[in-house]
Task: structure prediction
Amino acid sequence: MPPHTETTPNGYVKRWWKEAVVYQVYPRSFYDSNGDGIGDLPGLIEKLDHIKGLGVDVIWLSPHFDSPNADNGYDIRDYRQVGAEFGTMSDFDDLLAAIKAAGMKLIIDLVVNHTSDEHQWFVESRSSRNNPKRDYYIWSDEKPNDWTSIFGGPAWTQSEDGDWYLHLFDPKQPDLNWDNAEVREGVYDIMRFWLDKGIDGFRMDVIPFISKDKTFPNLPEDLRAKPQYVYANGPKVHDYLHEMNRKVLSQYDVMTVGEAFGVTLADTPKLIDERRQELDMIFQFAAVEVDRGRDGRWKPWTLPEFKAVFTRQDQALDRHCWPTFFLSNHDNPRIVSRFGDDSPQWREKSAMLLATLTLTMKGTPFIYQGDEMGLTNRNFTEITQFNDLWTKNAWQAEVVNGKWSAEDFFANQNKVSRDHARMPIPWTSGRQGGFTAGRPWFALNDNFQDINADRAIRDPGSIYYYYRDLIARRHKTPALIYGDYKDLAPDHPHVFTYERRLEDEAYLITLNFSPVENKVPLPPRLTAWLAGNYGPADIFDSLRPWEARIHRVS
Ligand code: TEU
Ligand code: CA
Result:
């Protein structure tokens, strides 16, 4: 790759992926083209105009590989095969071509901390202690320590021959042994297979977990409820990522974004400082953990603690590091229900406010499918309504075992469940929201008749067009991409107001996180109102409920 030398006035090296807006597709729930109830790649091709219409640059496709779907595709059986329910390799090639023809790029999900237990490598590995692939996974003749799976229960499972294998997630997701050079080369070959097709990079699933401390100490007491902070700190993670970069990534003009579950802000630069040549970007979890207490249980959050995350992040990252901005994905509840107000009165305004935040913050923005129409959480009342194995495990561990009442369980899951984001996309107000001509693999939210793509597209004042306009504004405004960030009222309990400045070009973004009017002292040198979810305002310091505004600062 040619060296990248063009820099911004404030010292960032310019790269296409810093200027991009990314849209995540969870293919199972996007659009079903053949009536089997499961979203698929031809369905995504059919609906590409919906994504292109937003003006996004990159699509991140959640796993589309062959998988027994213990964890909806995050357990891969064959990395070189498209999941039969999603289509064929030729559908994938058509999708990639259609995305390129639409002027966009495609990144795919690289899930290589673990495979499925049905992957050929594991089938061989578990078949006998002497199998040449035994060492592809992490085996021990006795249970080495007290590590727990992120999804609950022990992280070690005993196989038929009596030995134990490590799985930091489900028992059907055994962890690969990255200390084995053949494993690493095997992963690099998989990466080249897809890169050579012309994809534009990877989102890397729990990538900081790949290196294990083989002395296997027990979990320290203070991290028992958050073992990810142990798992993300293996001794060789940086060696392996640097090797991956040198041998594979640096040979292509692609972007990488690692899911940095368990990585502190202080440790973030070690993964993304461009001089280290590991990853381009990571997803840092501090913002989405603001409403999680002990054991990941929901707790109320406050705006000052939420805002503080971004100042801390900005201070932790210098010019050699580039952040991401995301509030949602397939593992998180719906943003409007979580950070906004999903009541009929304020759903649209607050969804637009969150769009304003996402598209004016520093860091490459990631939008999750459906956020552009303000999709909401649903109200789950029965365990049978859930799909996520994590929730099902928790039901066993907490309710069936008598630790929590069912009522507490549902109250919590209705706040934190990953299933909120995984319901099929409502395209129309018709049967099954137009998602499928058959029976959907997972029920749609009951509000699909009111909230669906068709309605959003017909209404020129919809959330969808608000996203489109802001994406266009970000693209043409270098200060909104590369500009310095400053929170102007960190302690204000309801208003988030910050400046983005690139030399003498500056913007003030003001967001009223509240269903009532708020006043905020704004700097006197404000000039034109540029954009917002209400239209121009003449009283500068009075904000209407859930109002979002962008002003130019002179
Ligand atoms: O997620 C890692 C992970 O553990 C998250 O689910 C995290 O716990 C959650 O966001 C906290 O709210 C990745 C994938 O994104 C997830 O879908 C998979 O289930 C998991 O890895 C295993 O592959
Ligand atoms: Ca289908």
In short: The chain has a mean pLDDT of 96.
